[in-house]
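Onboarding guide, step 5: your first structure request.
Type a short instruction followed by the sequence, for example:

Predict the 3D structure of this protein.
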Amino acid sequence: MPPSPTEARHMAAAAAGFFVNMVVFAASVYAGSFYDKTPYHTSSLTSEMWVAELVSGHPERIKAELGMRLYVFLALVEALSAVGLTASRHISLEQHIAIFLYVCVTGLSIRHVGERFQHANATISQYVFEALLTVNILIHPLPLDLFIQSYMQYCHLHSTPHMFDFQPFMTLSHPKL
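The system replies with structure tokens like these:
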């Protein structure tokens, strides 16, 4: 026997109430991730400490991690400083250049480099891009689009990974650049 019209309305109201409760629950679970922040980068070795350890440690370690000997690294820091690369409020010039070199040497994604240096992905990407532009000025002052194009052609010819493969946010039209 079919339900009476009153029972049908009650069942429809109960179903609608259940649906509304589920939507509210799902929204609260989703929104909770924005309010209950759990730190992601929690290593006890900060970026500054790791770079200091490389600079003061075994000479072969900095070469293995950043692809150059200590005296070359210090000369690069000096040269990039001379053409306008500066330290920021949160990161020293040595860390800035170490991030860039680490990306170049390892070919790791921004997420992995962020874990190594204990910085947000957007921060890592920004510092790599700034260092890349400054190195371009230092080595060969090309317009940015020609520089990126020649860099990618070089990587393709030599079968080496390049940073633009895993940094889609680094485009010329990005509002932060």
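Each response can be followed by summary notes, for example: The chain has a mean pLDDT of 75.
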